[in-house]
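Thread: "does anyone have the structure for this chain?"

Original post by V.I.:
We have the sequence but no experimental structure in hand. Need at least a predicted one for the grant figures.
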Amino acid sequence: MVIVGDGDFLSNTFVRNAGNLEFGRRVIEWLAEDDALVDIHIPPVPDGLLELAMWQRLAIFVCFGLLLPVAFIANAVLLGWRRRRA
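Reply from O.Q.:
Generated one for you, tokens below.
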């Protein structure tokens, strides 16, 4: 059984996205009982790997792992203190 929402994934706009053409071709082959090669090959994305230097990874960790949570906690403490005083 093949369930597809609609045929937009095979329209001209979306036919090259993420192997839609290959998927549509394989579905038609499977429905025609010519499913000897049902394997779908998706080509690798050229910029799919993010390589960061150690200082970049450390900067991201310090900003999002330390500074941002400390800022949120400080803001919550400040708001709680101001509400108790009011």
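V.I.: this helps a lot. The chain has two domains: 1-46, 50-86.
O.Q.: and Residues 50-86 form one domain.
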